[in-house]
Amino acid sequence: METKPTRFFWPVRVYYEDTDAGGVVYYANYLKFFERARTERLRALGYEQDELRAREGILFAVKSIQADYLKPARFNELLLVTAEVREIRRASLLFAQEVRRGGELGAKLCEAAVRIVCLSDGDLRPTAIPDYLLERIKDDA
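^ that's the sequence the OP posted. Answer follows.
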């Protein structure tokens, strides 16, 4: 039986600093919104990235991203950012992410597929996600 991925939402308010000369969110800032949502999803599971680095010697980095910008967001809008785990591998995770205006049913402004890889802090080479963390992510996905 196929299960629906757990949806994780993180609210983001658009600040003036997020906008460009045209008054819309600068495209690169959507990547920051995506990063915050992934970090908050990990935090919601009970894990902090700095603690994982200190205790396990691992960190997470973006390996690849494919993003589609659909509609503009503007200053002071409240956005909702998702972070759904779509694929779990031993040393990487694939997230499907969206930015929506106002709420879960609001207009989709941007969507992305983001591959995150687990790296060894020492040499920055790919390494396995610790078993306990991998199991926790699988349980939540």
